[in-house]
Amino acid sequence: MLSTIIKKLIIHSGLFGIIRNLLNIFSGPGITFMYGHRVLTDEIMANPDDPRRIAGQSSVSEITELIKSLSKHYHFISIDEALDQINNNSIKRESIVL
Q1: Distance separating alpha carbons of residues 73 and 95, to the nearest angstrom
Q2: 24: how many CB neighbours lie within 10 A of its CB?
Q3: Measured at the alpha carbon of residue 83, what is the angle toward residues 31 and 57, in degrees to the nearest 5?
Q4: pLDDT per residue as tens digits for the range 25-75
């Protein structure tokens, strides 16, 4: 419960936007790399007695919400495309790799 509240607070507080805008002012567009360990179904997350449920895990609906929110500010690219842009020093716009 607390981890869900914290995730939503970070995602919707505008913290990512503030950091992104400050970095753009000083260094231009960049590529953000995000990773996670696993995503559980909403049904598993809704059952507090399910042994697969561990604090800090994300549900499918939380990840869907995160992707929708991030897509407003970032261009999603593959890791290969990100490495090409970094190696060629040609980062054109704010991008994200999941």
Answers
A1: 8
A2: 13
A3: 55
A4: 787 788 889 888 788 999 998 898 888 887 778 899 999 998 998 898 889
Task: Give the start-end residues of each E strand in 8-94.
Answer: 31-33, 39-40, 58-59, 75-76
Tokens found for residue 42: 């909403």
CA gap 16, 70 in Å, rounded:
9
Q: What is the rounded CA–CA span in Å between residue 70 and residue 11?
A: 9
Token pair belonging to 43: 């049904």
Exposure letters 70-98 (e unless 16+ CB within 10 A, then b): beeebeebeeeebeebeeeeeeeebbbbb
The closest of 72, 71, 70, 74 to 24, measured between CA atoms, is 74
Per-residue pLDDT at 11 exceeds 70: no
Its pTM surpasses 0.85:
no
Counting Cα atoms < 13 Å in the Cβ hemisphere of 51 gives 0
